[in-house]
Structure formats: structure tokens, C-alpha cells
Write a structure and sequence with these properties.
Elements (H helix, E strand, L loop, with lengths): L13 H15 L5 E5 L3 E3 L4 E5 L7 H22 L2 H10 L6 H23 L4 H24 L3 H15 L14 H8 L8 H15 L20 H4 L21 H14 L49 H11 L1 E3 L11 E7 L6 H34 L1 E5 L3 E2 L5 H4 L6 E4 L8 E8 L8 H17 L3 E9 L9 E9 L9 H5 L9 H13 L5 E8 L12 H14 L2 E7 L7 H11 L3 E3 L6 H18 L2
Length: 630
């Protein structure tokens, strides 16, 4: 299956999206916020997510950038701090049975958008260019929608379009439309008050007056949706309640939350402090009241024990325990929880680091001998080239110094005003001060290129062993059949570890197999942690994969999370290099995708025979950097 279908797989540049996210976090002063792209602007407090709109896609680069910036400004510097949640809750409760409640809600959000744009521009003049671009684009959108909506009989939609134009362009900039029974001049006189509003309640008053004027003239409510900012800001969400048995000293802040910021922070703090299954239904303060018994399930006397859970406490293990018990303890302890260390996308990941046992069969031994015989000339040539580079580096000397050995070229004493007749030889380096980590995609899609991948990994291993460079090689995959919303088991199959140093693990490399899914961002962070603990000066993390990230609940955010993982690891001084293992010429969309994730440190092969050549090319570049800076 081709996973790069353009119409169904349109992606945002992950590097740019991360920049917008960081801007939003800075403006809102909330490092827990996440930014996504949705049809309309959104707030989702339970997930700590804000969403900019897809409205800006398929426009010029400048307009798209400024438009998305205006979304971020409006969400995090406008609505975040200055939208009154209680006023919104009272208003929505009041019009709950109104036949034109959609029109009323969207008109209020339209007025709030206008008020908050001006407020943000006053506080931050640098946002003016972005908001002017926004104003121009949306005025054109609404102007082009008035007549089509009138022709379709969508009078409420056409009126909302007209009110947007009048508000942003002035009361004389209306469309040439016959509004019939709707007193448009009277509505304009009420709308003019929007230029002087100071808070959400002022705009509520304007909406109530306009709705009262047009109620008799409209036959149906809005057909289209233009705003979704208020959809997730409900009264129930904004108000917290306490258990009756809770003591006064344990109670939190009383009353409703005034701003969207307070709603978000309350949910974030509670989720951090009281994470658990009880949050699936409601969020409550207190730990000593009566529990909600609505989630009970009847027992079953015929039920069988399907799974055994172990705690994290450690007790004394008797020396007389038999081997079977000891083995069970080792297996149990080998599984680790990812927790928050590897990113919020992997909170439910449980991972295991296990050695890949060599399959010492005749077929594998013959393959190992055959492949090494085939690769020997390339390995020998590469090693000789690197040694020559090292020798040249050792022999080179730094001249024109103030102290050191006296140079044979003494003309500098006569010619130069400040002669520097000394030189020093560079001290030879015994070993290359570098460490490598290699992650190999263990997903099921690797099955058709398994042998070629093993040859590339074997070449990598042999070259580094010959140069006496410490390295680690690990397969990574997720067990898809066991994955669920509560737990996502991942496995790292260790072929060669840092502790192995120069041990020959060729048979382990030939023994790895393709498995199921791949959680790339998690694997990169895991290897990044291991490399960070090393003392070498130069640290490299190579990723061999044949496609985009794919795992349980990871399809939507996998690309963004992997790009973020790459940035996090590189900030720690580790260079991340990617090799796309393709059995055919990569598509342009594939190249763009991996460029978004790995930047300019990604390479690709055009066929399976090209894997080893690309591996050598990458190693040559990396060792050149190491030798030059040694």
C-alpha cells in the first residue's frame, strides 16, 4: 500500500508547526500547550490542545505564514486571557432553547474576534501585519459568500457574512444585496457599538439586540459553522466541585474559572496530580469523599485468570529459590514504563530491552562468510582511507606561533614586524573520539528488504569494529497485537551494545527479523538517552527506516512527535542521520516528508542494492567530521 497519497496525506511542515507551537507557549506562558491544525480554531482543555485553522492552506507562503501567526496570536494572546468564560456560559445557557442559537453564538464569537484582534494589536504592535493579512483574507471570504448564501436561501449565513464585512471594512462597505424585511440600517446602528466594547459582556448585549431585531425575519438558523472556539468551553468544564467529605484544608480554589487560561491550567494541574481512570467521566477535587459507583461491572464466577500484574516493590529473594523463580524475576524486571521521560505521546508505552539471540545455523554462517567476503574490499578501502586521513592529521603542524619548536623558515624574523618563528606538531590521537548508535526499523514492511538491510548493518558494524569505535545497534518495534489504549508494548532488540566494545556480533545481526509497528519518536529518544550518558566528544545517532512512523494511536501525531524528538536529541549534542531504505526510487512526497522530520540529514536509496553504498557514504562524511575536529 502506498502511504504517500497526496489528497489523503497532506501534512504541515513539522519544523514550522513546532515553531508556531513554541510561539504559542511563550505568549500563553504555558509550556504544556500543544498545537494542532483543524478545520476551525479550537480550544481543547482536557487534552491541553489549541488548534489553528486549515483556512490558510493552499495560499502563498507569505500569506499562509502570516495567517497562521494571526491564529496563534488570537488564540494565545487574545482569547486565552481576555475571553470571559462565565459570561459565555451564562449566554449559552440563556439561549439554549432559542431557534437561532447558532447564529447568536457565532455572532458573539465574531464580535469577540474583532475586539481581541484590536486588543492584541494595541498590546503588541508587531502583530499588526499578521492581523491585517487575516482581515483582508477573511473579508474576501465573507464577501464571496454573501451572494451564494442568499441564492441558496441561507439568509442567516448571508447576514453573518455581511456583519463581518461591515465590522471590519466600515458601515458603508456593505454588499449590494436586497435584504428584504431585514432592517439592515437599524442593525448597522447597533453594530457600531462594537467599536467601543471592553469585555465579553458588552458584546453579549449587542448580540441580544441584533438577534431580537432579526428574529422575526429569519426562517432558519445558520447552516455553516464559522467558529468552534466556544464548543469545548462549557459550563460543566469550567466549574469544579468538591466531595462532600473533603476537609477545608484540602479544598482548591472556589468558584468558576474566569478565563480560558484558568480552565486550561486547572485541567492540566489536575491531570498531572490525579491522573487515573476516574478522569474518564468527571474531574473532581478531593480524595476522601464517596466514590462514584456508576462504573461498576458484575462479577463472573466462571472467569479465568488471564493476566498477572506485578508491583514495583522489591523484597528479599531467598538464595534457595530455584532457577525458574529467578528467571521469572529477571523477565519481570526487564520491562520498563516510558512515563513522561520520552514524551507525552508515549505515556502508556512499556518497553523491553532484550538481546537478539544468534541463530547459529549453517545457512546464517554461510551468509555471514559470503557477505563479509563480498564487502571485504569496500571495508578495507574505507579503513585505509580513514587511516590516511588520520595520519595526515597527525603529521600536520601549526605554524607561525609565539612559542614551540623553532621553524627552519626564519625569514619571518626579517619580514614581519612581530615575527612568529615557532611551530608545533599536532598530538596524534590514539582512538577516534566518537560513539555511534544505530536504530533499525523492525516493522512488518521491512520483510521484503530484510537481507539487504542486514548487509548494510553488518557493514556498519564491521567498519566501526575495525576502527575501534564504540557503537550500539538495536532493532525497534511495537507489538501491535498486544497494543491498546492502556498499554503499548515496545521492544528493543539489542544486536550490539556499548559494553560489547569490539566484539564480533555478526551472527546477532543476521538473526533479527521484521515484526509489526514502529514508534520512531520514542526509539530516537531512547537511543538519545543512552548516547547522552557516553563521554565521547562526537555522538551520532543513525536511523534506518523504510517509511513514516506507524503505531497504536500514533498515526496522527507520529510525524510531528518524531520531528520533535530529533530536535530534542540534537540539542543535547547528538547528530541524528536518517537513511530511507527504499526498494525503488523515492517519491517527491517521501523526500519532503523525511526532510520535514530530519532536516537536511536524510539520505535515500533508489534500490535495495544501494543500501550498503549509502551506508558507506554516510560513514565517510561522519568520520571526516570526527577526524577534522580531533
Amino acid at each position: 500500500m502506498n502511504r504517500f497519497i497526496q489528497f489523503n496525506d497532506e501534512t504541515v511542515d513539522t519544523q514550522t508547526l513546532l515553531l508556531y507551537e513554541r510561539l504559542g507557549r511563550a505568549l500563553a506562558d504555558a509550556q504544556f500547550l500543544e498545537l494542532t491544525e483543524r478545520k476551525l480554531l479550537e480550544f481543547r482543555p482536557k487534552e491541553s490542545i489549541i488548534s489553528m485553522s486549515v483556512f490558510w492552506r493552499h495560499r502563498s507562503e507569505e500569506v499562509m505564514h502570516l495567517g497562521r501567526l494571526s491564529d496563534v496570536y488570537l488564540l494565545t494572546a487574545g482569547f486565552w486571557k481576555h475571553f470571559n468564560v462565565p459570561a459565555w456560559s451564562r449566554f449559552t445557557r440563556k439561549i439554549e432553547l432559542d431557534p437561532f442559537q447558532k447564529f447568536s453564538k457565532e455572532l458573539l464569537l465574531l464580535l469577540e474576534e474583532f475586539r481581541l484582534m484590536d486588543k492584541v494589536m494595541q498590546n503588541r504592535p508587531g502583530t499588526t501585519t499578521a492581523f491585517n493579512t487575516r482581515r483582508h483574507a477573511y473579508v474576501n471570504f465573507h464577501r464571496n459568500s454573501v451572494h451564494p448564501n442568499m441564492q441558496k436561501g441561507l439568509l442567516a449565513d448571508a447576514l453573518l457574512n455581511e456583519l463581518f464585512i461591515l465590522l471590519h471594512e466600515g458601515m458603508f462597505a456593505g454588499s449590494e444585496v436586497d435584504w428584504g424585511p431585514i432592517p439592515i440600517d437599524l442593525i448597522k446602528s447597533v453594530l457600531e457599538n462594537a467599536y467601543d466594547t471592553r469585555n465579553t459582556q458588552d458584546n453579549v448585549f449587542i448580540v441580544e439586540r441584533i438577534t431580537g431585531i432579526v428574529a422575526q425575519s429569519l426562517h432558519q438558523d445558520l447552516f455553516h459553522q464559522y467558529y468552534s472556539i466556544g464548543d469545548s468551553i462549557t459550563e460543566q468544564l469550567a466549574e469544579f466541585h468538591y466531595h462532600k467529605g473533603l476537609g477545608e484544608t484540602d479544598e482548591g480554589e472556589e468558584g468558576k474559572k474566569e478565563t480560558i487560561e484558568e480552565v486550561f491550567r486547572s485541567w492540566h494541574e489536575e491531570n498531572e496530580r490525579e491522573a487515573g481512570v476516574h478522569l474518564e467521566y468527571e474531574l473532581e477535587h478531593g480524595r476522601s469523599g464517596k466514590s462514584d459507583g456508576s462504573g461498576e461491572t458484575p462479577g463472573n464466577e466462571d472467569a479465568q485468570v488471564e493476566e498477572i500484574g506485578f508491583g514495583q516493590s522489591e523484597g528479599d529473594v531467598s538464595k534457595s529459590s530455584d532457577g525458574e523463580e529467578h528467571e521469572e524475576i529477571e523477565v519481570r524486571d526487564s520491562k520498563k514504563k516510558a512515563g513522561k521521560l520520552f514524551g507525552k505521546e508515549h505515556l502508556h508505552v512499556v518497553y523491553e530491552e532484550q538481546r537478539i539471540e544468534p541463530i547459529n545455523e549453517m545457512e546464517n554462517r554461510q551468509k555471514l562468510m559470503s557477505w563479509r567476503e563480498l564487502q571485504r574490499p569496500f571495508v578495507r578501502s574505507f579503513i585505509e582511507e580513514m587511516k590516511k586521513r588520520i595520519d595526515l592529521k597527525e603529521d600536520s603542524k601549526r605554524e607561525r606561533l609565539m612559542k614551540g619548536r623553532l621553524s627552519s623558515k626564519l625569514t619571518t624574523l626579517v619580514v614581519d614586524e612581530r615575527p612568529k618563528p615557532f611551530y608545533r606538531k599536532n598530538a596524534p590521537s590514539v582512538n577516534l573520539d566518537a560513539v555511534f548508535g544505530l536504530l533499525v526499523d523492525g516493522s512488518a514492511s521491512m520483510i521484503d528488504k530484510l537481507d539487504e538491510t542486514k548487509q548494510a548493518v553488518l557493514l556498519f558494524h564491521d567498519v566501526l569494529n575495525e576502527l575501534k569505535v564504540i557503537h550500539e545497534i538495536s532493532l525497534y518495534y511495537e507489538e501491535a497485537e498486544k497494543a491498546s489504549a492502556e498499554i503499548q508494548p515496545n521492544v528493543f532488540g539489542l544486536m550490539h551494545t556499548f559494553m560489547d566494545r569490539n566484539r564480533d556480533n555478526g551472527m546477532s545481526i543476521l538473526s533479527f527479523d521484521a515484526n509489526e509497528d514502529n514508534r520512531d519518536g520514542f526509539a530516537i529518544r531512547w537511543m538519545g538517552e543512552r548516547l547522552s550518558a557516553r563521554q565521547e566528544k562526537h555522538k551520532f545517532l543513525l536511523v534506518f527506516s523504510d517509511g513514516e512512523p506507524s503505531a497504536y494511536g500514533y498515526d496522527r501525531n507520529g510525524i510531528l512527535d518524531t520531528a520533535e524528538a530529533v530536535m530534542e536529541v540534537e540539542k543535547r549534542g547528538i547528530s541524528v542521520i536518517h537513511l530511507f531504505l527504499s526498494s525503488e526510487e523515492p517519491l517527491e512526497e517521501q523526500r519532503e516528508l523525511f526532510s520535514m522530520i530530519f532536516g537536511n540529514k536524510t539520505a535515500s536509496s533508489s534500490n535495495v542494492e544501494d543500501f550498503t553504498d549509502q551506508t558507506l557514504r554516510i560513514l565517510r562524511k561522519l568520520f571526516t567530521i570526527v577526524i577534522r575536529n580531533t
